[in-house]
Design a protein that fits this description.
With 337 residues, the chain is α/β, with parallel strands linked by helices. The chain has helices at residues 40-46, 100-103, 135-139, 141-154, 171-182, 194-202, 218-224, 242-248, 271-274, 288-301, 317-325, and strands spanning 2-6, 14-18, 28-37, 64-72, 84-87, 118-122, 126-128, 163-167, 186-191, 207-210, 230-235, 249-257, 279-282, 307-313, 332-336. The protein has two domains: 2-142 and 286-336, Quinone Oxidoreductase, Chain A, domain 1; 156-282, NAD(P)-binding Rossmann-like Domain (Rossmann fold), CATH 3.40.50. The structure holds NADP nicotinamide-adenine-dinucleotide phosphate (NAP). Residues 39-41, 143-144, 147, 167-173, 190-193, 196, 211, 236-237, 240-241, 258-262, 283-285, 324, 327 line the site of NADP nicotinamide-adenine-dinucleotide phosphate.
């Protein structure tokens, strides 16, 4: 089979090589991967950005993939040849709070990912693909989708009528917008691009702010809320946006810390959090149980992930990662395999 591999840290060390076809052991499933999609994490991983929390030698990168079952090992009961499946991000976080083993089991980190033609995974690391989705759409769901699901529902506790702000038009933020709309919430979407803001409106955003024109967007966001402040901000910006997020939420509101796209370190006035009883909480994707709950909601509501217009092939993985780095995409960047 063909697989994308980094021989060492660095995008220039990425190549497509021939590897022996894997075979499923007891409790395992052999998947023919049809599509993978990119997360910002995949770019960081290829560059060795996670240090000791990832492998850099001979790693198959990319966490999110979907395809079909081509063989099953002994004892597998939930999948049969021909089933369409999607892999959960954390292979060993089944339910409840994670432990160290669970949090080190992200695909394409310490263990191989999905940027290959054939992948063997344990039965309890796979779910059935919702029937209305293509393989590319299903491959959009594991990391960005489940992170947004956790941020909006399980940790963000969004209810109908709540007001929420999303930052930018990347994978996590677009899913957060879509899930918030499923819940009947009102969404303020931000982006650095007016053209992307229009696409966010088409996905249901109620209010739009261009954060490049208005870097101090907490004030207009509060004005939209009638001065009360928002119930929730899904924070992907990090250093340069966290203060705006904290200022934008209401007393007792929540900021879900998902990403650090604008930097990881920042001087911050803690009393803004303490004296206003803000809930500042880290989000780390989610468990297999949460993934199944999310997939049920996606299927029942016919939710379609937003995919970027450009398509890449496996031997164009480096170009696809550069496309992601440039921020030229909208929604999920797809590599067809
Ligand atoms: N904690 C977790 O479990 C988890 C899971 C997934 C991702 N993440 C993290 O979440 C972040 C987003 O991931 P992703 O895969 O959604 O990324 P992505 O698809 O690459 O999204 C990038 C988009 O974010 C927007 N953006 C960039 N800088 C911004 C800023 N300063 N303020 C507001 N928006 C900004 C831009 O949108 P516009 O072009 O519209 O301006 C950019 O196109 C990353 O830091 C990633 O590592 C964490």
């Amino acid at each position: 089979m063909r697989a994308a591999v980094i021989a060492n840290a660095g995008i220039r060390n990425l190549s497509v090589v021939d590897l022996p076809d894997p075979e499923p052991g007891p409790g395992e499933v052999l998947v023919r991967v049809r599509a993978v999609t990119l997360n910002y994490r995949d770019l960081l991983t290829v560059e060795g950005g996670y240090g000791s929390r990832q492998r850099t030698e001979n790693l198959i990168p990319v966490s999110d993939g979907a395809g079909e079952v081509v063989a099953t090992g002994g004892g597998v009961t939930r999948f049969a040849t021909g089933d369409r499946v999607v892999a959960n991000f954390f292979q060993r976080w089944q339910a409840g709070e994670p432990d160290e083993v669970g949090l080190h089991s992200g695909l394409g980190g310490l263990i191989d990912g999905m940027a290959c033609e054939l992948r063997v995974l344990p039965e309890n690391g796979l779910c059935h693909t919702p029937a209305h989705l293509t393989d590319a759409e299903a491959a959009a769901l594991p990391c960005a989708g489940l992170t947004a699901w956790s941020a909006v529902f399980d940790q963000g506790r969004i209810k109908p009528g709540d007001q929420l702000l999303t930052q930018g038009s990347g994978g996590v933020s677009v899913f957060a917008l879509q899930f918030a709309k499923l819940a009947g919430a009102e969404v303020i979407a931000t982006s650095s691009s007016d053209a992307k803001l229009q696409r966010l409106r088409e996905l249901g955003a109620n209010h739009l702010i261009n954060y490049a024109d208005t870097p101090e967007w907490a004030r207009p966001a509060r004005e939209i809320s009638g001065g009360r402040g928002l119930d929730l901000v899904v924070e992907v910006g990090g250093a340069r946006t966290l203060e705006q997020s904290v200022k934008a939420v209401r007393l007792g509101g929540a900021v879900m810390l998902v990403g650090v796209l604008s930097g990881a370190n920042h001087d911050f006035r803690l009393p803004l959090v303490v004296t206003r009883k803000i809930r500042l909480e880290g989000v780390t994707c989610g468990s297999y149980e949460q993934f199944q709950a999310m997939l049920r909601a996606v299927e029942h509501n016919g939710l379609k992930p937003a995919l970027d217009d450009r398509r890449f092939q496996l031997d164009e993985l480096a170009a696809a990662l550069e496309h992601l780095r440039a921020g030229a995409h909208f929604g999920k960047v797809v590599i067809e395999i």
